[in-house]
Amino acid sequence: MSRNNFAPKRRTLLTLVVTAAALLVAPVLPAVAAPQAVDWDKPGPHQVQVQAMTDHTLYFPAKMDRHPVIIWGNGSLARPAIYDGLLRHWASHGFIVAAANTVWATSGSEMLQGIDLLTRLNQQADSPFHQKVDLANIGASGHSRGGGGSLNAGADPRVDTTVPIEPGPRPSSAGLRGPTFLLAGENDTIVTPAGVKQYYESADHVVAIYGSLAGAGHFTPLNDGGGFRGPSTAWLAFQLKGDERARGEFFGANCGICTSKAWSEVQRNRLAQQVPGPNGA
């Protein structure tokens, strides 16, 4: 038999050996994990501490790094303890909450004093808040009268975003400087959805979203925030932390609140519709 009859077999064997060697030395690329979905309705990773002061009650992570701020306004004749579950929830997600102890938060001025307080504490070397307060990222929120106060506080240049919950009476959204997420209750007869929508319509100079929570009444936000808890947390996480996991809840063609049956009505103004959704969609 001729030697040439074995040549193809030798070449095939050589090819297999070279290929196997190449596979052994080729780098193994790690799999790219997709961002984990967040259930914003559930508590965050932080243990929470509460400190009652003269004019404010502070809710904050027990072990602080550097955290954005939420200033809070109560409803008529209410105190922060009425909303304890909601305020603790936000703190568990890494926010420092300064809840004004006032029962008349309409003007927003008492809420803004929370920024002044945290600014001082941030500068005090003996304070647990020393250099822990992210004063470049501040949101304002509140319920009923305090919701109206959050709209008024939103005219302050230090406030970056607002989350008014069933806001009244007769605040102004014309002075807002940053994005707003206006929340109404479908069955609220004290601050009606139509009333909240008026503030949304006059906020056409900023990114504005209006949402009416299905089945919610005026007292739904008390204690733990009810169905308002998760969406408000997601909004604040995106606006104040740049948490991209929350973007799809509000922006893009098929945003989370746009398609959820938890909402009886959702509207997004022209500027909100121009904000890209996840992956630029």
UniProtKB/TrEMBL annotation:
| Domain PET hydrolase/cutinase-like span(s) in chain numbering | 55-246
**Would you tell me the protein name for this molecule?**
Acetylxylan esterase
Q: Which residue positions does the secretion signal occupy? A: 1-33
Q: Which Pfam families match?
A: PETase (PF12740)
Instruction: Name the UniProt key words of this record, in alphabetical order.
Output: Signal
> Region Disordered: which residues?
138-157
